[in-house]
């Protein structure tokens, strides 16, 4: 009996130790952008589960604001379905599903009663089906809006940001031309689903994608006074 109790005690100690070793904590300035900041107002709890990381983000009121899944602790490779909660009352506001880091499956929004207000169905980052309780929102991404998405400071600041952050490798200086990209700015103002429309060179294509993804949060587009996602086409010149 004594040996059995000792075994149980050792099992508890080992289990607690393993759990502690597999649990990571980060501070973030924004749980949606996953920007690590030692003084950030959000706390990210990260637990290794099998071959992926299960993540929970809490604000200063200890309210859960996101639950998500990633393949790495840089939090760039999303998978499974992520949940986003209201920071004041903790109610579920949105869920998004991913596969191989891209939107794949349902992208659903909910009202305060928990009812679905609209959803998109994605396949490898592209919308294949859309529904909304409001007929005017049957198109998920707008190329023209009553109020367009805007980079902080306006268009000139956006062009300046691209110019300052774009790196043109010396070994490729002889390659000149234009990369054209398409990306989505979601209703929260963050950039997602960056795609190449016109390619120039694999390395330069990836550099153009990197610069776009580095962008800070935008002022989201609005349609009839409500924040909506929008698609932007952006050329980037090399040479």
Care to describe what's here?
This protein is of the alpha+beta class. It has a domain of 99 residues: TonB (TolA/TonB C-terminal domain). The chain contains 3 helices and 15 strands. The strands form 3 sheets. Strands 2-1-3-4-5-6-7-8-9-10 form a 10-stranded antiparallel beta sheet. A hairpin with a 2-residue loop joins strand 9 and strand 10. The longest helix is centred in the first third of the chain and has 20 residues. The chain is globular, with a radius of gyration of 21 Å. The termini are far apart.
Residues in helices, as a percent range:
10-25%
Write out the strand line-up for the largest beta sheet, numbering strands in chain order: 2-1-3-4-5-6-7-8-9-10
What's the N-to-C terminus distance?
79 Å
Determine the CATH topology of the domain at 141-239: TolA/TonB C-terminal domain
Radius of gyration: 21 Å
Q: Give the helix tally.
A: 3
Give the amount of beta strand, in percent.
35-45%
**Average pLDDT:** 83
CATH class value of the domain at 141-239 = Alpha Beta
- Using the 3D structure, state the CATH architecture of the domain at 141-239: 2-Layer Sandwich
Q: Specify the biggest β-sheet.
A: 10 strands, antiparallel
Q: Write down the secondary-structure element order.
A: HEEEEEEEEEEHEEHEEE
- Count the E strands: 15
Class from secondary-structure proportions: alpha+beta
Q: List unreliable stretches of 5+ residues.
A: 2-20, 136-140
CATH superfamily of the domain at 141-239: TonB
Identify the overall geometry: globular
């Amino acid at each position: 009996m004594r040996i059995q109790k000792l075994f149980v005690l050792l099992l508890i100690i080992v289990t607690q130790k393993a759990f502690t070793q597999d649990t990571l904590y980060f501070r973030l300035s924004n749980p949606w952008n996953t920007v690590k900041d030692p003084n950030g107002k959000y706390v990210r709890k990260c637990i290794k589960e099998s071959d992926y990381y299960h993540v929970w983000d809490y604000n200063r009121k200890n309210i859960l604001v996101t639950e998500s899944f990633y393949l790495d602790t840089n939090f760039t490779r999303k998978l499974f379905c992520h949940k986003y909660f209201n920071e004041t009352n903790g109610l579920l506001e949105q869920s998004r599903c991913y596969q191989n880091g891209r939107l794949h499956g349902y992208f659903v929004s909910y009202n305060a009663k928990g009812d679905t207000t609209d959803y998109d169905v994605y396949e490898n980052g592209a919308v294949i089906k859309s529904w909304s309780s409001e007929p005017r929102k049957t198109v998920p991404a707008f190329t023209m809006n009553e109020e367009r998405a805007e980079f902080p400071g306006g268009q000139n600041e956006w062009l300046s940001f691209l110019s300052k952050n774009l790196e043109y490798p010396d070994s490729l200086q002889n390659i000149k031309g234009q990369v054209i990209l398409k990306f989505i700015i979601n209703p929260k103002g963050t950039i997602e689903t960056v795609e190449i429309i016109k390619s120039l060179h694999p390395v330069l294509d990836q550099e153009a994608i990197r610069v776009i993804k580095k962008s800070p949060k935008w002022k989201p587009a609005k349609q009839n006074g409500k924040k909506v996602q929008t698609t932007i086409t952006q050329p980037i010149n090399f040479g």
